[in-house]
Amino acid sequence: MSNILRRGRLQLETDEEMKQYTSSMLADKWIFEADIFIDLAHTLMLENQKIIKKDDCKKILAGLLKIKEEGMEKLDFDYEDIHISLEARLIELTGEDSGGRMHSGRSRNDEVATCIRFALRDELIDLMYEMIELQKSLIKLSKENTETVMPGFTHLQHAQPTTFAHHVLAHSNCLERDILRLIDAYERVNINPLGSAAFASTGFPLDRDMTTKLLGFSKPMENSKDAVSSRDFLIETASVLANISINLSKMSEEIVIWSSQEFDFIELDDKYASTSSIMPQKKNPDTAELMRGKTGDVVGSLVALLTICKGLPMSYNRDLQEANPKIQTALKTTRASVRIMTKMTDTLKVKKERMFEQSNKGFTTATELADTLVRKTDIPFRTAHQIIGILTKENREPNLKILDEISKETSGFKLSERGLKEEDIKIALDPVENVAKRKIIGGPAPDTIKAEIKNKQKRMEKIKSKVEDLDKNVQKSLDNLICLVNQKINEE
Ligand code: ARG
């Protein structure tokens, strides 16, 4: 048997269906590059620790660089995973006497755990940058709409006047917390399991700090059993991705309903709309609908990950192989959604006049009117709430005469006798005044929102430079690794 994995212990080759059922080769495309970097670092360390000879080390390193150049397609897809297939190709290139030494002190268990962390941190950094771009787009949209008065909703019923900037910032603050969650998750992703071997580490004197530094991880993972078998970092990441997707789905839902004739608050750029094959007048917000739908993929991946990991005995179990495609799906879908949402919000047409027209429909100023009664006449809020409630129920004009009538009936006094004026009522019913009055921290008043935007921009600068630092740290380590590899290959 020529299969370098099975030729010792096993006598029979598996059949085609079995191969496909058990192989991770297709999903392993995601970790092809990672695996090469990890092999390079491990090999340099083996030589440094005098576990392999310099000549073998040089051959292995050169072979690995050649495999990197050839690309994944050159590998034998008949193998059960990338690690063994890559090793087989290496042995083909260098001969077993050299290439066969690379896997000393290592197992595919610590190898794959390291590969996943390596590939994942790259994706996380890219996603953080993409999220920052989306923040930029939302900040721009807010800045343009600090005076755009619109109805705010609770229970999807007209509730109180607000501004579009206030609304957009609410969404963007949700997504800002998601970036912080990504950074937090990154810390627990960027730890090095390499050197844990199958689960009990190894008797070879590996230098785990060396591979950690070469690969740009923050520290070696302690406890080799935990290192090979834990996938909590995948569950944690997927849960952040699910949260991002849910936030995007909420935005998508609003894009869909707000583009309807009933709302008519916004219009999507043609690029992100579709039409009907039969109804020629239609402009449908398909992109937003699909984004809402694709959330299912991400939430599904999280649930799959939780289920795969549930009830596994310590330590490595092959079930874990099934986790890898799930995180890939979640990443791919979430990252695409973030990029597309940025494009949609960048080009969104906001119908400011229509929003303003609707801003006082459904008696959205009722709360302010009740508050005005409290402030001007010193009645308890609950009494004012009843008076305005009755006014609304009876569908009567909100003027001084009628309010006096209702208050006389319910409470035995006239509001005008306690100081309420027609002018106070007029001001309370003005949606622009409503918004202007809400100027405490968190409120929609234009100056408050402008200050919030400034704070947010400052926070985003900090977040961006943190992400750039994470990115640079990894890049620096990997550049150095490649440099050391080339030096070693060229040494006498
Ligand atoms: N393809 C495997 C995975 O993704 C690699 C580890 C295989 N280890 C083993 N003991 N069979 O988990």
Secondary structure blueprint with pairings:
Elements: H1 16-22, H2 32-48, H3 54-70, H4 82-94, H5 96-99, H6 108-143, E1 149-154, E2 157-163, H7 164-189, H8 208-214, H9 224-229, H10 232-258, E3 266-267, H11 286-309, H12 323-346, E4 349-350, H13 352-358, H14 366-377, H15 381-393, H16 400-411, H17 422-428, H18 431-437, H19 446-490
Antiparallel strand pairs: 1-2, 3-4
Helix pairs in contact: 2-3, 2-6, 2-8, 2-19, 3-4, 3-19, 6-7, 6-12, 6-19, 7-10, 7-19, 10-11, 10-12, 11-12, 14-15, 15-16
Folded structure, characterized:
The chain is mainly α. The chain has 3 domains: 16-104, Fumarase/aspartase (N-terminal domain) (Fumarase C, Chain B, domain 1); 109-206 and 215-359 and 455-475, Fumarase C, Chain A, domain 2 (Up-down Bundle), CATH 1.20.200.10; 366-429. It has 19 helices and 4 strands. The protein has helices at 16-22, 32-48, 54-70, 82-94, 96-99, 108-143, 164-189, 208-214, 224-229, 232-258, 286-309, 323-346, 352-358, 366-377, 381-393, 400-411, 422-428, 431-437, 446-490, and strands spanning 149-154, 157-163, 266-267, 349-350. A two-stranded antiparallel ribbon has the order 1-2. A hairpin with a 2-residue loop joins β1 (149-154) and β2. α2 packs antiparallel against α3 (54-70) and α10 (232-258) runs antiparallel to α11 (286-309). The longest helix is centred in the last third of the chain and has 45 residues, at 446-490. The protein is elongated. The mean pLDDT is 97. The protein binds arginine.
